């Protein structure tokens, strides 16, 4: 027996408090008290002996006792031999800055706080197959959300062209050039990177690894492995810009397949293994919002119903977060903002179905709450998915007018800043890349104008090139870099640094390409 919307933790004994009162750990980190009516719950301490001598009912009822939230959503119950006191273990909030945020400048609209009644969902592991579904939602938007991926900060960026070719923008000994990574199958998107390996999906949904082994570049088909799966999209980010990625012995990448189910692919120690994590029982998954940046062992996703869910990779439980019935999220990835790894405080940023910026904020004082930031100004909505976060206080987004906007905290106040789009004078800002003669077989230089130029920013999800730079794709296929100079203080100083000609550009192309061998 278990409380409603919760499960008693497995293989962890309960504690007998007194006659008629027993406390059990729950899978979600809270405590469940099984007690006689009128003798338990948060409003009842230990009862006097005279009280319990009266005749007791033989019927038990459950009360839920909230516990402090910890890293991993208190999931350690299932992996460590601890009793109920383990609910407060883990990375607790120890940051000195515990003051609540003041969002008083054109204050964002706050939805009422998350209700205490949370819903932990049991997954039907025998869901009917959906192989014949003709409408593939995920593949329509993967071009916008997984078009680019940074491999090494300020040195290597991968781009998937519309024709399925894979290009790498590489700084080789101070020289920028484009490398073409050839494969017999056209690629669809870049879904992740780990330990120097890039993970890509082809047009058939097969997951591939592109990596270097000594002097040789290899392709590895992960879908062809034992119990391999096809995928459609993956995690939006590989970590926080400027921070080293935490490496563990159980590291895994998560993907979503075209049927809207979450898939886990273990990559630690190259012990590759697939696992089907299913999906919430009431919807299919649209995209992963965040994988373990905001909380270890927790994967946040948005359902195709516009609702926010989380999956706990330890307990294997799905959880639906409270949302106002009037708030629907767009079916796109999100961005996690966590100012300090020593504090649980932070936010998930997403876009609403109406194109406004939405924040799901957690603080130790107030718990979870929704904050609606709206749009930069009237007549402009946000397009695509939110961009990268910097310094735990700055977020980049793209507007429907083709301009870049930054939502940032100044002191204790949120503000919008417009960075427009890069200058239109090609001769002044275009990056002219070249290569040395021994670049490799198939080296090719292209220069000149082809077609028309459009310097406005496209609705493609931007990527962080380093902890001080972000790369956007323009509507004509070129790339543009917005950079913060070393002398910049605080949130200011972001400037357009250059426009990068690409092999996929419909505008001026000025670059070297070579076949990666």
UniProtKB/TrEMBL annotation:
SUPFAM superfamilies: Fucose-specific lectin. InterPro entries: WD40/YVTN_repeat-like_dom_sf. PANTHER family: BULB-TYPE LECTIN DOMAIN-CONTAINING PROTEIN, OS01G0275950 PROTEIN. This is Uncharacterized protein. It comes from Zea mays (Maize). The lineage of its organism: Eukaryota, Viridiplantae, Streptophyta, Embryophyta, Tracheophyta. The gene is LOC103634660.
């Amino acid at each position: 027996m278990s409380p409603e919307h919760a499960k008693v933790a497995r293989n962890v004994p309960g504690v007998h408090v007194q006659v008629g009162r027993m406390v059990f750990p729950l899978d979600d980190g809270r405590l469940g008290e099984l007690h006689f009516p009128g003798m338990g719950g948060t409003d009842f301490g230990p009862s006097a002996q005279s009280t319990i001598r009266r005749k007791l009912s033989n019927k038990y009822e459950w009360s839920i006792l909230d516990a402090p939230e910890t890293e991993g959503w208190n999931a350690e119950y299932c992996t460590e031999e601890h009793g109920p006191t383990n609910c407060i273990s883990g990375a607790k909030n120890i940051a000195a800055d515990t003051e609540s945020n003041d969002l008083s400048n054109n204050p964002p609209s706050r939805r009422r706080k998350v209700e205490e009644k949370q819903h932990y969902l049991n997954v039907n592991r025998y869901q009917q197959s959906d192989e014949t579904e003709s409408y593939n939602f995920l593949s329509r938007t993967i071009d916008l959300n997984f078009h680019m991926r940074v491999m090494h900060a300020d040195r290597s960026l991968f781009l998937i062209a519309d024709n399925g070719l894979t290009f790498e923008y590489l700084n080789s000994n101070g020289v920028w050039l484009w490398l073409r990574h050839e494969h017999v199958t056209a690629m669809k998107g870049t879904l992740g990177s780990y330990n120097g390996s890039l993970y890509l999906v082809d047009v058939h949904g097969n997951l591939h690894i592109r990596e270097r082994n000594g002097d040789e570049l290899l392709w590895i088909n992960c879908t062809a492995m034992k119990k391999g799966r096809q995928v459609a999209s993956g995690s939006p980010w590989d970590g926080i810009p400027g921070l080293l990625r935490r490496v563990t012995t159980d590291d895994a990448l998560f993907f979503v397949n075209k049927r809207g189910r979450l898939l886990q692919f273990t990559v630690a120690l190259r012990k590759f293994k697939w696992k089907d994590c299913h999906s919430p029982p009431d919807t299919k998954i649209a995209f992963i919002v965040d994988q373990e940046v905001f909380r270890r062992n927790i994967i946040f996703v948005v359902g195709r119903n516009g609702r926010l869910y989380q999956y706990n990779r330890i307990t294997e439980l799905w959880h639906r977060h409270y949302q106002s019935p009037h708030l629907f999220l767009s079916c796109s990835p999100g961005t996690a903002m966590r100012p300090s790894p020593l504090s649980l405080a932070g936010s998930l940023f997403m876009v609403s179905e109406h194109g406004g910026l939405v924040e799901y904020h957690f603080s130790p004082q107030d718990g979870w709450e929704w904050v609606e930031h709206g749009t930069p100004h009237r007549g402009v909505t946000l397009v695509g998915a939110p961009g990268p976060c910097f310094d735990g206080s700055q977020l980049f987004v793209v507007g429907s007018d083709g301009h870049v906007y930054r939502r940032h905290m100044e002191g204790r106040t949120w503000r919008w800043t417009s960075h427009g789009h890069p200058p239109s004078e090609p001769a002044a800002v275009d990056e002219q890349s070249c290569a040395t003669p021994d670049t490799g077989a198939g080296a090719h230089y292209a220069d000149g104008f082809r077609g028309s130029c459009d310097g406005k920013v496209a609705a493609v999800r931007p990527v962080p090139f380093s902890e001080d730079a972000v790369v956007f794709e323009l509507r004509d296929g070129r790339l543009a870099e917005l950079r913060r100079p070393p002398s910049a203080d605080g949130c200011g100083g972001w400037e357009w640094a250059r426009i990068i000609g690409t092999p996929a550009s419909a505008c001026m192309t000025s670059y070297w390409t070579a076949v990666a061998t």
